[in-house]
Design goal:
- By secondary structure, this protein is α+β, with helices and mostly antiparallel strands.
- The protein folds into 3 domains: 187 residues, no CATH class; 121 residues; 136 residues, Glutaredoxin, CATH 3.40.30.
- Helices cover 41% and strands 18% of the residues.
- α1 packs antiparallel against α2, α6 packs antiparallel against α7 and α8 packs antiparallel against α9.
- The longest helix is centred in the N-terminal third of the chain and has 29 residues.
Length: 470
């Protein structure tokens, strides 16, 4: 088991920066790097400093600049080995290392926190050996009778690790080892309560975990950003515990940003992580959460790590997303049909309208448009659906030939020969195909769909309408 948890003292320091005298017993005349974690674990690290070892394997890393303490690393230039150390602003420590041993032999002077960390590291080495031995036994088990006692021993070993960590939290109360080990804690879920009829609440474990997930994480300790913990916790929380709808994500995002506000690096990392999570999400409608973050934080000057030009790109992006979010009235389009007549999207009378933007010579469109038509004929047509298909580009003849070849004459086939509709901006069309689903009143009910998803969204809408009517 990889040892990833380290510590830093809360002891006040007289000076800013750091002074680290390093002595490698098996290296000389080579460069050693000082690096740190930033939110994530390996392989993501950030170089802080470097020093060239002398012929005795000695060198001193030194800075007078204030630092945020946390988990730092010493890495020889070949990066074949590394040593995690604890560094706090104002530390003046000495480190002796033998890089060739695994785990590396290392000792400290003037650093009680690193001594405590070594105590924990040594326990983890023994713990990992025992866990690997149990896994080997389990893989060799041939029956349930063989595997059950091994699984029970593994569970007991896991409880031992939790107990050991809690012991260190108490033993070194007030130090960062306590803060970090607490940040690693997973809520221990009590037995689910039963109602008056003796029935157990099946959702209790999920709800308890969500409510208590962050209980032991100290958002006011900036040094936690220089650990491999935070990114993983954000990922688990938002992917496994938060309901994947914009309202829920917005609520949790606002809470986390309120908790981290005042801790510059934690706040910045949180806002950046949430922005990427919502912008890149494949979940329909999550762009509304992205718009929320940009409007509430970026537009109000909270993205302090970005230059104004980058903030403006975010603002430009939501300007394109905003008009076509789910629940909004679809922006109207005035287009030309195949025979040159003018038609408006708002004039289409249908219970549902599939609005599709495609190019007849786009490889993906060539594959998807016939499948969309098959779905239309098999399922969508009988539900009162019409297809408003916008040709985005390619010569007129290519378009008409495509319609004829694939028998798409039942579609409302349109284009914008004079480029007056501004459809690309209104519907954020930067690639093709792009498919929206509109309801009878032309409100957007689905976006960036594929042909297989359209019936599922319609079914969901009809179930919701039926439930509301009852």
């Amino acid at each position: 088991m990889a040892a990833v948890v380290l510590l830093v003292s809360f002891t006040a320091q007289a000076k800013n920066g750091y002074k680290i005298h390093v002595h490698y017993t098996d290296l000389k005349d080579t460069t050693v790097l000082l690096a740190k974690y930033f939110g994530k674990g390996l392989p993501t690290i950030y170089k802080v400093d470097s020093v060239k070892l002398n012929k005795k394997g000695e060198g001193t890393l030194f800075s007078k600049d204030t630092i945020v303490g946390g988990i730092y690393m010493l890495l020889p230039a070949d990066m074949r080995s590394f040593n995690e150390i604890l560094l706090n602003d104002g530390d003046d420590i000495s480190v002796d290392i033998t890089s060739a041993t695994t785990p590396n032999k290392i000792s400290f002077k003037n650093s009680p926190e690193n001594d405590h960390f070594q105590e924990y590291q040594q326990y983890l080495v023994g713990y990992g050996e025992r866990l690997n031995a149990l896994n080997t036994e389990l893989s060799a088990a041939k029956s349930k009778a063989d595997s059950t006692p091994i699984i029970e021993r593994k569970q007991a070993l896991g409880k031992e690790l939790i107990s050991y960590r809690r012991g260190l939290v108490q033993k070194y109360s007030g130090s960062l080892i306590s803060t970090i080990l607490r940040a690693l804690e997973v809520p221990e879920i009590p037995p689910a309560p039963k109602d008056a009829k003796g029935k157990t609440d099946s959702t209790f474990a999920y709800r308890y975990m969500k409510v208590h997930y962050w209980d032991s994480f100290n958002f006011k300790d900036e040094r936690l950003i220089h650990t491999p913990i935070y990114d993983a916790k954000l990922d688990e929380y938002f992917n496994n515990l938060v309901v994947p709808v914009p309202d829920s994500v917005n609520k949790e995002a606002d809470w986390l940003l309120a908790e981290t506000r005042g801790q510059k690096q934690l706040f910045n990392y949180t806002l950046n992580w949430l922005s990427q999570f919502t912008e890149r999400s494949k979940i329909m409608g999550m762009d509304a959460a992205f718009v929320h973050l940009v409007e509430k934080y970026y537009a109000r000057g909270d993205a302090t790590w970005l230059p104004d030009s980058s903030v403006q790109k975010y603002l430009d992006r939501i300007a394109k997303i905003g008009p076509n979010m789910i629940g909004k009235l679809a922006p109207d389009l005035t287009m030309k049909t195949v025979d040159g007549k003018t038609i408006k999207l708002s004039d289409v009378k249908a219970k549902y309208t599939v609005l599709v933007f495609y190019s007849p010579d786009c490889g993906h469109c060539i594959t998807e448009m016939p499948k969309l038509d098959s779905m239309y004929r098999a399922v969508l047509k009988e539900k009162g659906t019409k297809i408003f298909a916008v040709r985005t580009e390619t010569p007129e003849k290519t378009w008409k030939d495509f319609i004829q070849k694939h028998h798409l004459e039942e579609w409302i086939n349109v284009w914008d020969p004079e480029n007056t509709s501004n459809f690309r901006s209104k519907y954020d069309v930067y690639s093709t195909p792009v498919i929206y689903l509109l309801d009878e009143r032309k409100f957007i009910r689905g976006k960036r769909l594929d042909y297989q998803t359209i019936p599922k969204v319609i079914e969901m809408l009809e179930k919701k309408a039926t439930g509301a009517a009852q």
